Amino acid sequence: MAKFSHIDAEGRPSMVNVQEKTASLRVASAQSIVELPDEVINGLADLNKPETKKGDLFQTAVLAGIMAAKKTGDLIPLCHPIGLDHCDIQLEFRDDKQLVITCTASVFAKTGVEMEAMVGASIAALTVYDMCKALSHDIVIRETRLMSKTGGKRDFKRTS
Asked: Fewest beta carbons within 10 Å, which of 53, 92, 102, 136?
């Protein structure tokens, strides 16, 4: 039977001991979807290079997502602090109203980077909200989810 990895035998929160694990290349990709109302879409003159009063929407969201991914161990109590080898954030519009943010993180380590990828995507999405909220508060961050991971005990790839 599966059990929670961050609970010790006495039921207390516990950081997973990775001492005995073998280091390997760990890669994870996560995605956040931001729905933008017409007021925001109409306020962005060029969806390929969206500018706001606060600056370039895409560049700022990318930098915020990368910075956040690097700080995951400081933000989530039981995450191991790891030095990322790489972090990439991609933003693209889908259906002219949905902005899809994908964060891919990688490291050669004893523990994975799923949380780093999800934090990176989430903070990039929140940055989009922050930069566009002057035009509308009807922006909705629909979901953040793990899309894939490799390395470690088992690989994962979302099929839908």
From this structure: 53
